[in-house]
Amino acid sequence: MLVVTDAGMPAVSDPGFRIVRLAIDEGVPVTVLPGPSAVLTALVLSGLPVDRFCFEGFLPRRAGERRRRLAELEGEKRTMVFFEAPHRLVDVLADMVAAFGADRPGAICRELTKTYEEVRRAPLGELAHSAEGTRGEITLVIGGAPAGQVLGTPADWAEEVAALIADGEDRKASITHVAERHGVQRRDVYEAVVRAKHADDSAPDERK
């Protein structure tokens, strides 16, 4: 079967995604002819939703910065596309498992449009387990956060708001930012901040 179009990339913003997903589920090999970007090629081959996606490029090399960036993406509901170097793949996938959970769907796409093209589609936990020794040019495609998923606890939200305020962001914007990141109502984050402040004000002063 061949899917072609005379108006843009097949399977992006058209029903071609359903054909790709059906072929994958039936064990039919899927490939994409060379195009202008590995981002769209990997996105189509992944079998993950393509109606909304974001390109995150390369994650930070330093482990701490990388984990903070992934934590910021925990609540991202769009399919995410990353580039990654093979020698960092194992560590990156381990950090993704910690940030997104072992069951989050993903795909390792390597050597796209080349002789040894390979796409591994599996939950992140399985991808992390099998990543050792992977070589070539790599593009990672990771499913977005499930709709309705609530991330973190009220205490976490309050801490994040406090951190944003400490970095110079105003309180209202900080609360909105944290609510959007975790997929919760703004008033829930506001109430968590109020409760945290009340708990701090009520705590005994150990300096006395």
Give a topology summary.
Layout: H1 16-25, H2 38-46, E1 53-58, H3 63-72, E2 79-84, H4 89-100, E3 105-110, E4 118-123, H5 124-129, E5 138-142, H6 154-166, H7 171-182, H8 186-202
Parallel strand pairs: 1-2
Antiparallel strand pairs: 2-5, 3-4, 3-5
Helix pairs in contact: 3-4, 6-7, 6-8, 7-8
Report on this structure.
This protein has 208 residues and is an alpha+beta fold. Helices cover 43% and strands 14% of the residues.
Q: In total, how many beta strands?
A: 5
Q: Which CATH first-tier class of the largest domain would you pick? A: Alpha Beta
CATH topology description of the largest domain: Methyltransferase, Cobalt-precorrin-4 Transmethylase, Domain 2
Q: What integer value in Å does the Rg equal? A: 20 Å
**Strand line-up in the sheet with most strands:** 1-2-5-3-4
Distance between the termini: 77 Å
Q: Which CATH architecture of the largest domain is right?
A: 2-Layer Sandwich
What portion of residues belong to β-strands? 5-15%
Shape: elongated
Q: What is the count of distinct domains?
A: 2
Q: Name the helix and strand elements from N-terminus to C-terminus, one letter apiece.
A: HHEHEHEEHEHHH
The CATH homologous superfamily of the largest domain corresponds to: Tetrapyrrole methylase, C-terminal domain
Structural class: alpha+beta
In the predicted model, the low-confidence regions spanning at least 5 consecutive residues are: none
Helical percent range? 40-55%
Biggest sheet layout: 5 strands, mixed
Number of helices: 8
Mean pLDDT: 86
